[in-house]
Design brief:
It is a single chain. It is built from three helices and three strands, in the order H-E-E-E-H-H. With 65 residues, the chain is α+β, with helices and mostly antiparallel strands. A hairpin with a 2-residue loop joins strand 1 and strand 2. It is elongated, with a radius of gyration of 13 Å.
């Protein structure tokens, strides 16, 4: 975990974000991933690099199937 991840605070409740296991759903596919999230609100933080990089690549692969 990087230093910047340790400093993330939930925008809804103000709690410190922790590493949580999240389930992603896209089309008919489910996948699990560890992300920073709020255990109080059950919201997860998806960094811009992940959203524009890896998730975009996976999205393209799944749509081509």
């Amino acid at each position: 975990m990087s230093k910047s991840e340790q400093l993330l605070i939930c925008g809804c409740c103000g709690q410190k974000l922790e590493v949580v296991k999240a389930i992603g759903h896209y089309l008919d596919y489910d996948f699990s991933v560890e992300l920073m999230g709020c255990k109080h609100c059950n919201l997860v933080y998806i960094p811009e690099e992940l959203a524009n990089g890896r998730i975009s690549q996976v999205e393209s692969l799944l749509e081509s199937k």
